[in-house]
Amino acid sequence: MKRRTSTTDRVPSRARGRRTGAADREPLGVRQGSRRASAFLARRSLATHRRAWAAVIVATGAAAALIGAFAFVVGSLLVAAPPVQRYAGADAVVAADQKVSHTAKPWGGEPRTATAYLPERARLDRSVLAAVAGADGVARAVADDSVPLSTGDGRTAVGRSWPSAVLTRYELAEGRAPGDAAEVVLDAALAAGGHAPGDRIVLRAGGAARTYTVSGIARTGHGGDAPPAVFFTEPRLTALAGHPGRIDAIGVVAEPGVPADALRAAVGAVLPERSGVPGSDRGVRVLTGAERGEAEHVDALGGRGDRLALLGSIGGTVLMVALLVIASTLSQAIHQRSGELALLRAVGASPRQLRSAIGREAGRVAAAAALLGGVGAVPLGLAMRSLLTTGPLPLPVPWWLPPAAALTGGLLVALSARPVAMLAARSITRLRPAAALGAATADEPSGPGRFRTVAGVVLAFAGISSAGVATTQSGQAAGVAASGAAMSLVIAVALLGPRISRIALGVLGRPLRRAGGAPGFLAERAASAHTRRLAAAFTPIVLVVAFVCVQLASGPTMERAAGQQASAALRADLVATGGGAGLPAGAARTVREVPGVRAATGVLRSTVVLADREAGEPVLTRLPVLGVEARGLSGTLDPGVTAGDLDRLRGRDAVAVGADRAKSLDVGLGDRVALRLGDGTRVEPKVVAVYEHQLGVGEFLFPRKALAGHVSAARDQVVLIRTGDGAGADPAAAVREALAPYGGGVAVRAATGDDVAIAPPLSDGDNAMIVIGVGVIGGFALLAVVSTLALITIGRRGEFRLLRMVGTGRRQLRRMLVLETGLVTFAGLVIGTAVAAVPLTAFAVSLAGTAPYLPPAHYGVIAGAVALAAAAGTLVPGASAGGRSVLTRSAR
């Protein structure tokens, strides 16, 4: 090499250029020939191994469809906005800012800010109305308030003032506007029950039911799912709302010809910096266009953020699972051809040609899978979208979203397939021809390589460490640590599979031989000779079992613990409910006067926002809380007080704290806790009691009076009732009769733990996330089980032919396959359950203080689904793919 360089240096530059050009043309021809050879090998291999590649296409195509579907739903959520219905007739809406922020400096980093949406409506001071009305370009500014109410027959509606009807473009169809506090105008939808001007209607809003005169019927063309409206005079509506100095929002009607941007600027110029409500630091926003819907559904964007966080967590798992499945199926397909690749290397194929051929094969397979998966991503994404869409937050489908989602899933599959396939074949392509000739007939390696072993041990240690960290954390940090532990352990099982399979065979091999006879002996010997194959077979089963068990068991574990604590805290024997409109504070006082009632407590539900740190990062946690009255509380609710006294839970400056939360915040009796109420008001109430049943009744208990002024509607969801001597034979009937003045919709029944549980039964949104997390991803993982096992079975055709040629009977082969399927299924179930038990135990201990719980029926469904998938992936290809020569009456 040195001699050639020195000679070239002595040649004149023009001659050196001619020689260099000639030398360059020769490698170019060699490269072109190499490409043609690689292309030829790829085409021939695709045709020869089409069944194996078909199994790979199914698994990778499903991965592309699932990734694309999640991209579809996430994209739809990102552009989703609350619909504009109530303010369809307003050109702009002025409302208080519904976001709260918290800034803190992480460990060794720059300050960061966390934000969260407030769950209750933040209101404006009424004085803001005059400022808005005087802005340039404003033709009319209308104060808008609303109150929940119910009719005499139990239907729910929204009470509004008649001047605010213009904001929705309501117009009188019959009658006239309300003239005094005893008259109302009905929405046409509500009047469809047979009401007309001059009729009487019973309505319950702020207190006992009252009869009103229908003065008119109004109609609007806004449509949608908005509840029907009842319009009062403005003074009457203000009295019913219960906050005369504040208003929910201000609707603005612009003068003709004023554009939205100019209106926004003019109104913003006259607004105060803050909302003006005492104790609140909320800013003021001017909303135009599609933003107006945010003033109607104040927590819609907060719910969107929660769903995005959950989808992001599930989506990360989906991506990891998809990449694991792609790597597993491609590696298995390449590994089954190791003898063929070694023979090609021995007869003169260069490493570059083999790598190029394998890459071309994987690329073409990935292209087909990406195409199929991209097409399937759209209907799957639409199905997931239908589960998540709600009235307050419909999920749009812009024109660009379906192709973008399909392209996302397809590209990820296409880009990952080629390097994975080339990486899987590196051990063969790097061999020298003489060594490759021996490798073509060599036995399968008995264990994983050094790198795989080290990586598997590291991941196993990381998973167990993450589970240990989860036991010391709480809230979201514990859930994240547990999820990380589960995924780390699953990947560790995939890497250490051959070693784990040898352990499994050491335990199950002897029983298999004894129980199975000759087929059992064959099954045990085949598994022992191919531990890598056995590991590749049960790895997707471990993935299914571990993932689905973690998803299905986490919710029931928390629900069971919370239900037990709520039931233990409940002392009431009856409960009164008021339907969708709830019950006013006076209902509890009315019930206390019923003979035989020892105590009655109204329960007001709300949410507070706690600013804290997790792992050094600033976080804002929304925590559901209960507001109760101290009077008679011990007779209806006992949260297990360990310090202090709930009788001191009075006024607006007191709070009771759960023991675990008090420990995490390092507070005790007499200390103050910094919180934000549901509407963003900063408070620092004094701790008057510490209790232990925080999973059941929440981490904070407030006096009802402290929450009533900071919720969207101060209505009790339930009234807890404790009866005693003198209640009569039917105390429920006596209470029902006492509440009769509160109109229809009031029900009295036996109390249960769900009536005080801070986490009510699962909502439709929660069920949708469970369906997506378990149904969609679990189904994909089961499909991966079928594809992987089918791929393995197809690759064993030569083995089956040899067994038939040496005298193995057709029934013996079938029974051998059944026993192998049972071995793989049982090993996968046991290992998957063990993998799931580690993070689940950490999660349950840290958050619930109990052992994890999974309903036996759920686990039975998991085991049955895995067994069916394993049978479909092993027995069907074993009877069809090689059926002519393997399981038929004679072998060729």
Task: Describe this protein with a few key phrases.
892 residues, ABC3_permease_C, disordered C terminus, membrane, transmembrane transporter activity, 26 strands, transmembrane, disordered N terminus, nine-stranded mixed beta sheet, alpha+beta, 4 domains, 28 helices, ABC transporter permease protein
Describe the structure.
The chain is α+β, with helices and mostly antiparallel strands and 892 residues long. It has 4 domains: 48-83 and 297-442, no CATH class; 92-296, no CATH class; 469-568 and 760-892, no CATH class; 571-751, no CATH class. A hairpin with a 2-residue loop joins strand 17 and strand 18 (617-628). It is elongated, with a radius of gyration of 35 Å. The relative contact order is 0.12. Residues 1-26, 881-886 and 888-892 have low confidence and may be disordered.
Blueprint (SSEs and pairs):
Layout: H1 2-10, H2 13-48, H3 50-79, E1 92-96, E2 99-104, E3 112-117, E4 124-125, H4 127-133, E5 138-144, E6 147-151, E7 156-161, E8 171-175, E9 183-187, H5 188-191, E10 200-204, E11 210-219, E12 229-232, H6 234-241, E13 246-247, E14 249-254, H7 260-270, E15 284-287, H8 293-296, H9 300-335, H10 338-346, H11 351-388, H12 401-424, H13 426-429, H14 433-439, H15 450-470, H16 475-495, H17 497-529, H18 531-569, E16 574-577, H19 586-592, E17 597-614, E18 617-628, H20 633-636, E19 641-644, E20 654-658, H21 659-665, E21 675-676, E22 682-683, E23 686-691, H22 694-697, E24 700-703, H23 704-708, E25 718-723, H24 731-738, E26 747-750, H25 764-794, H26 797-805, H27 810-847, H28 856-880
Parallel strand pairs: 7-12, 9-11, 18-24, 20-23
Antiparallel strand pairs: 1-14, 1-15, 2-3, 4-13, 5-14, 6-7, 6-10, 8-11, 9-12, 10-11, 16-25, 16-26, 17-18, 17-25, 19-23, 20-24, 21-22
Helix pairs in contact: 2-11, 3-9, 3-11, 3-12, 3-25, 9-12, 9-18, 9-25, 10-14, 11-12, 15-16, 15-27, 16-18, 16-27, 17-18, 17-27, 18-25, 18-27, 18-28, 25-28, 27-28
InterPro entries: ABC3_permease_C, Macrolide_Exporter_MacB
Membrane topology: Multi-pass membrane protein
GO molecular function, one term: transmembrane transporter activity
